[in-house]
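FORM 7B - TANDEM STRUCTURE REPORT

SECTION 1: FIRST PROTEIN
SEQUENCE AND TOKENS:
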Amino acid sequence: MIICVDIGNTNLYGGVFDKEKLLLQFRYPSTSSCTSDQLGVFFRNVLQENQLDPTEITAIAICSVLPSLNYSIRSAFIKYFAIDPLFLDATNIPELTIHCENPQEVGEYLIYS
């Protein structure tokens, strides 16, 4: 199973997928004061409340427009899932050509939507 997270300015939105099947969706306020423990407990609880085993998570992908939260969410997934998440950006898909002067400045939500 894969956890996908979109970190927006107001909320974290996401879902858990088993191959192409969406198993559940979630939302959590995205404040820069969130600790890694708060986030880790939230993600584990969401899975367990939906009868999903956290140990079956094999990958985590994150898009973020809130860099101040990236450290906490990465730490949460490392501590609570033993997985270093992949932060998606313009450099993750080499065969994707973005026609602009600085592709790193293009928002991840535009690239991956």
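SECTION 2: SECOND PROTEIN
SEQUENCE AND TOKENS:
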Amino acid sequence: MNQFYETLLRIAVFLLCFAGTVVDAVKCYSCASENLETDFRNRQRRPPGTIVNLPQVFDNNCDSDIWILRAKASVDCPGACYKWQQRLNNSGVYSYMTVRACYEHMFGTPAPSNNVNECTNTENPLDCLPEATILDSSCLCKGSDFCNSANLNGLGIGLGLCLVFRLLRLF
């Protein structure tokens, strides 16, 4: 009978390991900096690509204090969460433009699968200001709620549980 419970425990642990990694939808932040609200689809400084839907909220808390917006900027997302941020570094003084969204909602297409849970960063000089640079960051993440709150999400809870149980040699 002891072997039965051990097998049952192994099955339960196995199912827990994949509970956090196999999901139908995740929650993503859907917001943008206030300075992006006017003429969002046509402006030069915005996320690249054809934008189908606007972010749910335009608020400067989208730049960094995102937890304040959780209640009003939360959307269900069938795929990947997205974060685009452009920082203008003018001799050490930064100004931000940030967009967080469900990639599928904003662009109307699934996220490129080869870039999920990755970030790309570029830095370019600003022609009109010799001491200024533009830092562009674009991230996609999948597998946990509100993963577009940071640059890149860590391990999912299911994978984390697998590692813990493996370390404890329960599975």
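SECTION 3: OBSERVATIONS ON SECOND PROTEIN
Confidence is low (pLDDT under 50) at residues 13-23, 151-168.
The radius of gyration is 20 Å.

SECTION 4: SIGNATURE
Preparer initials: ____
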